[in-house]
Sequence to fold (330 residues):
Amino acid sequence: VGSEFSPPTTPPASASPYPWAPAPPARGAKGKRVTASTLLLIAAILLAVSMGISWWSISGSGGGSSGTVNLLPGGSYSTTGTFGGAAGTGSTTYSSVGLVKVGQLYETVLGVGLLATFAAFGAMGLGYVGAFGVFRSRIPLRITLILTLIAFVAAVLPPALLATAQPGAFKADGAAMFGGTGGGGSCAAGASPCNAFWGTAGTGGVTVSWGADVGWYLSIAAAVLVFVALMVLWSSRRQPFTRDELWMAAPHPSAPPPGFAPWPNAPPSPSPPGSTSTSSPYPSAGPSPMPPPPGGFPVASVPACPRCGAPSMYVAQYYRYYCTNCRAYL
Ligand SMILES: [Zn+2]
Fold:
């Protein structure tokens, strides 16, 4: 900490002559990819939470009793309520009350929802890592896009399926528990969960209302986030992604500047002043109207650091100017 930087007096023979100059920051669609990955992370958390909470509920009250039935993804629904002054909660499997079709729907919701959750988590992880330019091929970017697409479809499908198929499933099961006043083996006439995903009904002093619950809305919200992430990733798909592409995309001067000093203590350019050699890689170094100052290294043609004003160094390895005072690229 705080040790003064002192460059070696002679350049090493290696191909990387500037060991103290770190690699410049990667450029490309990093910001977009980080944004998309963050959206995917939030979506994956929402999806995971939605798998453990109610997606649909029906509440009723009347005659001194009130109760709510919550349908959850998987094999069981829960009941909470007050019946004749006694409060109670419970969990019951769909199949044990004859809700076979409804139970299959909620098993499907769990399966597809978990697929969406894992796809979103996978796309998020790959997206974050890929944003920082560590991959050598574009395959991880394609996998990220495919996983994001899978997550979107798998997040949209369960709420859409439930809203369209659940009334028919109740009807097929002849749901006794929702058959109006209770009892009986078939759906009641009039408005009921057998013919509407959302609704209210009142019969004989008992008011019942039903509709989508928090889990259903969370899955929709997650699908929207995944869709935005997919659009952001898609819009950046042609931008640099692999290490090589990022390197190629970094701003390069077409050639090192004339007479640049690659090393503070290096001798002046081997090309003597006035040389008109046509093989020189820096054509303007020959017939320059202003010859470099004798004896010293020419710093005038090197841009000064905008922070400290010191002359910068040209780092050929990265095609960038570097300030050794600030230890930063210009
Ligand atoms: Zn500086």
User: Anything to note?
Assistant: The chain has a mean pLDDT of 79. Residues 267 and 297 are 7 Å apart (CA to CA).
